[in-house]
Amino acid sequence: MNGNILELGAPPRDASRLEKRPLLQAGYLHEIHARRDDWAAASAFALSSIARDRAGTILSLRIAEQGGFRALPYGDGLAGLGIEPGRLVIVQATNALELLRAGLESARCPGIAGVLLETWGRFAEYDLTASRRLSLAAERSQLPVLLLRGEADQRPSSAQTRWEIVSAPSIAWSGQAPGMPVIEAELLRQRGGPAGIRWRLEWDAEHGGFRETAMLGTVVPLPFLRTGEEGGRSRAA
Amino acid sequence: MVLTIRAGNATRLAAVDVQAQKLGLCVGMTLADARARYPALAVQPCDPEADARLLDRLAAEMVRFTPMVALDPPDGLVLDTTGCAHLFGGEEVLARQAVAATGLSTHHAFGSSSVSARALARFGDPFGNGDEAAALRHLPVAALELEPDALLALRRAGLTTLGELEKRPLKVLEARFGKTASLRLRQVMGDTDSPIVPRRSLPPVRVEARFAEPLIRTDDALEVIEDMLRQAAQQLEQRQQGGRRFVVQLERSDGAKRRLAVETGLPVRDPAVVMRLLRERIETLSDPLDPGFGFDAIRLAVPRAEPLKPRQAGLEGDDSAMEDSVSELIDRLGTRLGSNRVLRLRPRDTHIPEIAQGLIPAGPPGKEAWPAPRLPRPLYLFTPPQPIEAMAEVPDGPPRRFRWRGELRDIRLAEGPERIAAEWWRKMDGHHFGAGGLTRDYYRVEDEQGRRYWVFRHGLFEEQQGPRWYIHGLFS
């Protein structure tokens, strides 16, 4: 275990890429930006990276009914991504300050798998002090602390990495059916490392987590997910 | 109405009501036989655990008649009314009140010992003239509740009532029918003692502190509370219990009272943990804890306690400390935000997507695994579904493009439909066409930008003119 929570498994095509391999490392704060329409993709990216490498409770903190977005995580969908829905504890704060306090407290608890803060818009309470506090808490408890920022501008913070996640067209299965989720992840900023790199990642149903697609468009992947009972089983396994 | 239980490979009747009894059904008959006779039989599965719970609750209620209440499982209660009956105006009145308190149809009887009362209640003549000795003598030998073959032996010997049995010398009975028979006979006839084991509930743990001089500072009060928690923890430890709810009452010298209550997800004894929760609670109070002229008494009670075994520290890596830290975190967040804001998902047994999951206050993680989804389901679900304007190429096909949040989305890929019918069996006459509710046709679609949605058409074309479209979820 090297503490990496996102592993981009495909071997890099050139050696220079190896160093640029991005990590959502445990023990740090990471920011993930997403537009409103790409919210589910960003959330899947964050949740799967927490759930894959660590066992235990995942805390998902949000402000109730924020951003006109009355959507709740759906248990069957989580199970489909290989995340046991019973592991998720959803905390509904009433305001941003409460959210940050609860998030900070969760980030200090070493027994959980990780913390996911869902925020919307400007989120003025999240300043340098707040982000520094979260970073320190993550460092002490060695937890991954992820901050999802929906429809937000970038702001200086003490996060280790900053990402932008956008949905990307999937590789269709037979019968013009949508295939495995594909996302485009851009590393906007990385502390002490290069930034501005883009990856096109595809959901790996066999191992869970997003992986770099091999030459998108030319290789037709074997569909693991099928609309049938067996398909559901293998995804949940 | 009958209750059934599975015994081996057969489903047998476990209990029958008066009506079923009149029809000639009896306990032990197989359900298939009973159904063959009366197809319209109302059948419910027997739930012995619920019965036991009910009996337990009734026993707790009976304490208002006498402190000596014992369970007589599976379906009886023994009340020792010695010295209590006159408070209610006689035994009969007491019995009437007790029967009314249960709210059930019951048999009851009085006896000089618990075993004879039990025998009279179960086998006696409900219209006896009050002469206990005579009633006992008229009881059938079944009242001894012996093994079936011993009972058969008694009957074969021509002994049908206890009176006849009593006339024989005990030695002979013992030699022929075994020691149990003679012992039971003597118990039923009241010749030997048959003490009951009364149910006793422990009073909740309470600690009280009174001060000669009122405490002016809140910090001092908190220190006292911590000390009281330590005393309560000792009491709880002796009972091998941990508290789930702690209530602190602060009494001010001017008569005002303040209550602080905290609850925990797992039973705890550790004063530090409870103190942290109490501090959380004090912080969230809308009006602060004002000592005024000082607190002159503090009471602490633990109204809800559950068994908590002293824990032995493991030799290798101790996971339990980690688990504790998680449940403490959930308790703290629940105390501050309210337990209805710290939630866990729970599956429900239905195929209607929005009802298929419920939110419950987060406690310790559940043991049962989530059922594996059979078909792809979105990561986020809208409650309620949001209406969209959709255009489909063919009426029964997936949408070609749709407008949601004011933006037009062209569909590139689509899969479906997955047809989910309404729960027509829950509705009156729901099985008739169109009366059960609208059918939904779900499609998994992906637009040009690669966003994946879960949309559905509400109603088939046969069911409705121009059915509407909704978006119900977002896939990753």
As laid out across the biggest beta sheet of chain A, the strand order is 4-2-5-6-1-7-8-9-10
Order of helices and strands of chain B: EEHHEHEEHHHHHHHEHEEHEHEEEEEEEE
Structural class by sheet pairing and helices of chain A: alpha/beta
- What share of the residues of chain A lie within helices? 25-40%
Radius of gyration of chain B: 33 Å
Helix-and-strand structural type of chain B: alpha+beta
**Uncertain spans of chain A, ≥5 residues at pLDDT below 50?**
1-5, 7-22, 215-237
Shape of chain B: flat
- Our measurement of the CA-to-CA distance between the termini of chain A, rounded to an integer number of angstroms, reads 21 Å
What is the oligomeric state here? heterodimer
Largest inter-chain interface?
A-B, 68 and 61 residues
Total strands of chain A: 10
Number of strands of chain B: 17
Give average pLDDT of chain B, whole number: 85
Protein model, in words:
- The complex is a heterodimer of chains A (237) and B (476).
- Chain A has six helices and ten strands.
- Chain A is of the alpha/beta class and 237 residues long.
- In chain A, helix 4 packs parallel to helix 5.
- The longest helix of chain A has 15 residues.
- With 476 residues, chain B is an alpha+beta fold.
- The longest helix of chain B is centred in the middle third of the chain and has 21 residues.
- The radius of gyration of chain B is 33 Å and the shape is flat.
